[in-house]
Design goal:
Elements: H1 2-28, H2 30-51, H3 54-57, H4 64-90, H5 93-100, H6 104-113, H7 121-137, E1 139-141, E2 145-147, H8 151-167, H9 177-199, H10 209-230, H11 236-243, H12 247-258, H13 264-283
Antiparallel strand pairs: 1-2
Length: 284
């Protein structure tokens, strides 16, 4: 029962993360949202590490290859966030969120193509359904079919995240969730800081900063609940199925607070994405 509750809380928190980051990005600009998200996220994860410093101290004993791979994966994670927030600022938050959450498509394809891992008929079926769902959610119709605004950004986000998570397979030792988060926030902060130095663009703190604070806090809370849920033996399928459906929250928040609407084709696409993510988490 606790696994389900923790997974649901993680799902809701991730949905809030995407929604609030998207709203802030529309108000103050995508790069302002990205930079502040990395700063606040790094501060929050640092507080956790203060109580458990071994999460970072262990990194010193990692082989050079593992550290390099981790930094590269964190760089891809940062690029995925950049694509995602840019997508939020120009397109439908629910659609972009749903596309970003489909990164398992890339992970499974890469494990099949690169590592030669077999796919069951069930996994292959839902993988194909996921591809159809991604395609349908990207399409809008107004006299003729065209790509929905922000959908390409969501597509690039899912590719970057998929490659990033796939690379974790090659680490010689298991890495904790919070160590990975710390790496992601450090690399993200450094890259976004370099961007602002090069562009010489100031970051102005405005009243709407509370949105990005909520976004970063909700993200960390989501991973805390994900960690608690995943620590229960045999819970992987349930956790993945529930947490992976967080785009539902983004869609609902976008609909009720921003009056964002979806076409019938996009609704079908998002439903197919959610069904596929759930099924793949359980059966794969």
């Amino acid at each position: 029962m606790n696994v389900v509750i923790f997974s649901l809380l993680s799902m809701v928190s991730l949905g809030i993360t995407d929604f609030t980051a998207g709203v802030y990005g529309r108000k103050e600009g995508a790069w302002s949202a990205i930079f502040l998200n990395e700063i606040i996220g790094l501060l929050l994860i640092s507080i956790i590490i203060l109580f458990k410093p071994t999460l970072v101290i262990d990194l010193v004993s990692y082989p050079f290859f593992d550290i390099s791979l981790l930094v590269f994966a964190s760089t891809l994670n940062f690029l995925a966030i950049v694509c995602l927030i840019y997508g939020f600022t120009v397109g439908n938050i629910g659609i972009v969120s749903a596309l970003g959450s489909s990164f398992n498509l890339i992970v499974i394809l890469l494990t099949w193509l690169v590592l030669g891992e077999g796919l069951s008929i069930i996994s292959l079926t839902f993988l194909l359904i996921l591809v159809v769902g991604v395609f349908l959610s990207m399409i809008e119709f107004s006299g003729k079919y065209y790509l929905a605004k922000g959908s390409v950004c969501g597509l690039f986000a899912l590719i970057m995240w998929g490659i990033s998570f796939f690379l974790m397979i090659f680490l010689s030792r298991e890495i904790s969730l919070f160590t990975l988060l710390f790496s992601n926030f450090v690399v993200g902060f450094l890259l976004s800081f370099i961007y602002f130095l090069v562009k010489r663009r100031p970051v102005l703190l405005k009243k709407s900063i509370w949105l990005i604070v909520v976004s970063a806090l909700a993200e960390l809370i989501a991973y805390v609940f994900l960690y608690l849920a995943g620590s229960v033996e045999g819970s992987g399928g349930v956790v993945g199925a529930i947490t992976g459906s967080y785009a539902v929250i983004s869609v609902l928040l976008g609909y009720f607070f921003l009056k964002e609407k979806l076409s019938k084709t996009q609704i079908i696409g998002i439903v197919l994405i959610l069904i596929s993510i759930t099924a793949i988490s359980i059966f794969n």
